[in-house]
Amino acid sequence: DTGVSQDPRHKITKRGQNVTFRCDPISEHNRLYWYRQTLGQGPEFLTYFQNEAQLEKSRLLSDRFSAERPKGSFSTLEIQRTEQGDSAMYLCASSLDGGHEQYFGPGTRLTVT
Amino acid sequence: KNEVEQSPQNLTAQEGEFITINCSYSVGISALHWLQQHPGGGIVSLFMLSSGKKKHGRLIATINIQEKHSSLHITASHPRDSAVYICAVSTHGGSQGNLIFGKGTKLSVKP
Q1: Confidence band of A30 (pLDDT split at 50, 70, 90)
Q2: Nearest to B30 among A33, A99, A107 (CB)
Q3: CB-CB under 8 Å, B40 with A106
Q4: Which of B29, B30, B45, B98 to mutate to test the interface with A (most CBs of A within 10 A)?
Q5: Whole-number Å distance between alpha carbons of B74 and B58
Q6: CA B32 – CA B89 distance, rounded (Å)
Q7: Other C-beta atoms within 10 Å of B110: how many?
Q8: Could you give the 3-state DSSP secondary structure of residue A14?
Q9: Do B41 and A107 touch (CB under 8 A)?
Q10: Tell me, what's the pLDDT at B92?
Q11: pLDDT for res B1
């Protein structure tokens, strides 16, 4: 297993468009997390899954954001009607379970023009 | 006030110097993490600790639960150590996993 992967690595989109990102966690990991990082800041928690169940969502996750992990494996994060303020690095991480070390993917850098 | 504070924000050192990065937090935690982030965004977990001290190669992490403080030390620093070092905490409670991050310390080691 090569670790956590994310696709695409970079995405440039026009304001108002929808975008979808994919995260493939380490295969035996039950937990999957999404974080967002803006320039010069530390990452901020968005949401996490335990297997296919979405157990917690940050208030940062407005109704334009939706995340799924339909089979408890890969996850998708969709942003509808993108805004310039959505420009950020979107990071995915996975862990064996709660309280275990998290392994991060390379991130998807989103630029909204 | 942020729940996780790091100092300094930026640090420049000469190769070979001993480096210390500090982290203070104001919430109850189940664990503290030190992470390394290179240009381009990839984050690598260096340490996860809930008490005492851990060592890996030239890196040492310590935590004082009573004082809510942790330090990351780098001995014999090298230019390849140049990166952003991020402190993060896992909080108590039902989620037991989502991390609260500091803003990071940008380290530059000059040859």
Answers
A1: very high
A2: A99
A3: yes
A4: B98
A5: 6
A6: 4
A7: 11
A8: coil
A9: yes
A10: 66
A11: 65
Angle at B1 between CA A66 and CA B95, to 5 degrees: 40
Q: What are phi and psi of B22, to 5 degrees?
A: -110, 150
Q: What region does A100 belong to: left with phi over 0, alpha with psi -120 to 50, or beta?
A: beta
Contacts with B30 from chain A: Cβ below 8 Å: 99
Interface A–B counts its CB contacts (< 8 A) at 69
pLDDT digits (tens, 9 = 90+) for B76-97: 999 999 999 999 998 865 455 5
Q: How far is A16 from chain B (nearest CA, A)?
A: 26
The confidence band for B99, taking pLDDT boundaries of 50, 70 and 90, is confident
Contact A42 B48 (CB under 8 A): no
When pLDDT is averaged across residues B17-29 and rounded to a whole number, the result is: 95
Q: Are the CB atoms for B6 and B90 separated by under 8 Å?
A: no
pLDDT of residue B63 exceeding 90: yes
Backbone angle region of B41, left / alpha / beta, with phi > 0 → left and psi within -120 to 50 → alpha: left
Share of chain A above pLDDT 90, in %: 79
| pLDDT tens digits, one per residue of A32-62 | 999 999 988 999 999 999 999 998 888 888 8
The answer to whether A78 and A20 are in contact (CB under 8 A) is yes
Q: Which residues of A fall within a CB distance of 8 Å from B103? A: 40-42
B54 contact A CB<8A: no
